[in-house]
Here is the input.
Amino acid sequence: MDEDGPTVTTLLLGDPSCGKSTFLSRLSLGAANLSTPLTPHNTLPSLRDYDQPFIYNIRMYHRSYRFEFYDTASPENYTLLQPDFVILCYDINDRRSLNNVKDVWSEQTARLWLSRREEIPVMLLGLKRDLRVQKAGAIYPQEGHKIAQELRCDIYAECSATTGELMEEVFEDIARKAAKTTTPNGGLTQGGCNIM
Here is the structure.
């Protein structure tokens, strides 16, 4: 089996405090701990922006992959990156963060990357799912999926990095889509957006 697999650059875009760093922190615990409840003795590690990219080596499809995740706070100006996969992130309890995905982040994605490489898959990811029950005016999956379709995203998903809810499923979707970017057909979904 191929030990030196491809590298896939994944860029997370979204407003500050929408949950991107907590999401990446949860991923850093490894696949076995994606949905493990947090306790005072089992907490999420602190990730430092200048440690980017956050690297995750995984094995799937009988092949190794190196996933390099960058956050918009990247010390290397994220606009200079050439991502293979873009994840647009928003806080499901903050309508402003979803509006910014539509008005700012998706526009930057189209202008900076999709205009040159239209085969780059894009995911819309709702974060902080655990807080939905605590706030009025939260964005529900139906609305998120509708926005994902309007933005022509390939995948829509939501999760909670704090509780681990749906983290395994989201990471599996990210890994599959990222791995497909290394194939001749690329990672674009044929015919619409998938919802988790």
Notes: The first strand starts at residue 7 and ends at 13. Residues 95-114 form the longest helix (20 residues). The radius of gyration is 16 Å.
